[in-house]
């Protein structure tokens, strides 16, 4: 009854504005755009920062309460229900503005993707703007250099293959893919930037599934599903397996999911993976995740200047002889910040320094000290004291 009265009093202003397109953003903390959806779509709260226009007949899985599709543009953001939230012992500052239109974040490529000849994506190629799946698939054909701009959120009905020498870039901070994900197989030289990925339920159930691929840079993207369906309903958000190599994952906002980033899929794949799987994670914001940030087998990882917040089971998981340098990260209510002896038949090796573990330090389990004290590329390591603010403001699409 009360909501009916509120609706009625705002109905005039609602009709005066243009409501968000299918799958567009329609609300969330700090969202200044329109907060209603086009006909046939309903504004659903995906999390406290992001409400999305989804078909009213429930195509996109999510069990959060449905918000009316006629929400006044000046309505306050609804608060998120906390049924699945982990116990918070050490809450971090709440005034997080992760969508930084003016991010202090650098878009220069650093890390392992800068090696092995570097990662230039489609630089020098033709630019094509796409706004639906068939245009995307057509634009992605071939291994010639090409830049694909994604305009708006494209609903994918199946995982889409990305070939070599390709950049896929969001045209604005509300561009990307929902429903399924991207796959790379035997490809090289790929840049994925400024895109939102959500509800990835293609055949891989991953948002990005890369195999036998090299020189990949994933930057300023957002990845999320939900945690309403159990940990195997979706699979990974950003997974690299089968001897992928020279990868950088930077400035992404990765949240509301169970198993985020699997690097090396099996204890029995040493023949293919040993000596490969070099990967850098820097300035990513991991929030409300179960585990695998990353989980690394056999490979080599440099994990620096990331923020881990509300991590349920384990954060950095290094196993099967893998080596990692883990430095200047911030852990807040992140269970098992760093482990070398979880889930596999052999341990991994870690060098850790300058990390801020908050009150979770005593849940580290580093059983083997590694030898990755330096990395073979130049990088700026931000002071750990500035990392929380820098990363929570700068990570995600611009
Ligand atoms: C809605 O869209 C129409 C056509 O693009 C435009 O003329 C009008 O100014 C828009 N209204 C608002 C409130 O943005
Ligand atoms: C970006 O940040 C700079 C420095 O803080 C500020 O002067 C400028 O107004 C900001 N621009 C936008 C678009 O917010
Ligand atoms: C994709 O967009 C193009 C250009 O707007 C349009 O011609 C085409 O019909 C669309 N395809 C689908 C399947 O919606
Ligand atoms: C990618 O581009 C480079 C340089 O233009 C070219 O040599 C190479 O063949 C391309 N890769 C593939 C797989 O075609
Ligand atoms: C992998 O890609 C290279 C370069 O495009 C091609 O020559 C080769 O045949 C591909 N291998 C497989 C197994 O697809
Ligand atoms: C976390 O650990 C518990 C207990 O081992 C397990 O039941 C649950 O599935 C795990 N969740 C994730 C996301 O790994």
TrEMBL record:
GO biological process: polysaccharide catabolic process
Signal peptide: 1-16
SUPFAM superfamilies tied to this protein: Cellulose-binding domain (SSF57180), Pectin lyase-like (SSF51126)
UniProt-annotated location(s): Secreted
SMART domains found in the cross-reference section: Amb_all, fCBD
Domain CBM1, first and last residues per copy: 18-54
Keywords: Carbohydrate metabolism, Lyase, Polysaccharide degradation, Secreted, Signal
Gene Ontology MF: a single term: pectate lyase activity
GO cellular component: extracellular region
Keyword Signal applies: yes
Homology family: Belongs to the polysaccharide lyase 1 family.
Protein name, entry field: Pectin lyase-like protein
């Amino acid at each position: 009854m009360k909501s009916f009265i509120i609706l009625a009093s705002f109905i005039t202003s609602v009709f005066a504005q243009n409501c968000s397109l299918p799958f567009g953003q329609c609300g969330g903390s700090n969202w200044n755009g329109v907060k209603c959806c086009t006909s046939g779509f309903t504004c659903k709260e995906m999390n406290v920062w992001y409400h999305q226009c989804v078909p009213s007949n429930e195509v996109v899985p999510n069990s959060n309460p449905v918000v009316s599709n006629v929400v006044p543009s000046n309505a306050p953001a609804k608060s998120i229900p906390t049924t699945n939230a982990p116990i918070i012992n050490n809450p971090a500052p709440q005034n997080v503005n992760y969508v930084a239109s003016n991010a202090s974040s650098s878009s220069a490529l650093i890390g392992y993707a800068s090696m092995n000849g570097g990662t230039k994506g489609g630089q020098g190629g033709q630019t094509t703007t796409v706004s639906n799946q068939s245009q995307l698939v057509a634009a992605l054909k071939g291994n010639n250099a090409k830049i694909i701009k994604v305009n708006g959120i494209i609903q994918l009905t199946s995982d889409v293959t990305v070939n070599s020498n390709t950049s896929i870039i969001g045209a604005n901070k509300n561009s990307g893919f929902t429903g399924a994900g991207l796959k790379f197989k035997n490809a090289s030289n790929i840049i994925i930037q400024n895109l939102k990925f959500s509800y990835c339920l293609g055949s891989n159930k991953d948002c990005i599934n890369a195999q036998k691929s090299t020189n990949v840079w994933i930057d300023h993207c957002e990845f999320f599903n939900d945690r309403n369906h159990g940990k195997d309903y979706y699979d990974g958000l950003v997974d690299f397996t089968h001897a992928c190599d020279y990868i950088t994952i930077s400035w992404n906002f990765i949240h509301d999911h169970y198993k985020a980033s699997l690097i090396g899929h099996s204890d029995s794949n040493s023949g293919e993976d040993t000596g490969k799987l070099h990967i850098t994670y820097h300035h990513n914001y991991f929030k409300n995740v179960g585990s695998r940030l990353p989980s690394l087998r056999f490979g080599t990882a440099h994990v620096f200047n990331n923020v881990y917040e509300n991590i349920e089971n384990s954060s950095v998981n290094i196993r099967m002889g893998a080596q990692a340098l883990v430095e200047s990260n911030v852990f807040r209510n992140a269970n098992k910040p760093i482990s070398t002896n979880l889930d596999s038949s052999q341990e991994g090796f870690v060098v850790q320094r300058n990390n801020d573990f908050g009150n979770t330090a005593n849940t580290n389990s580093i059983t083997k000290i590694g030898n990755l004290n330096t990395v073979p590329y130049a990088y700026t390591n931000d002071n750990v004291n500035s990392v929380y603010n820098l990363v929570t403001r700068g990570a995600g699409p611009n």
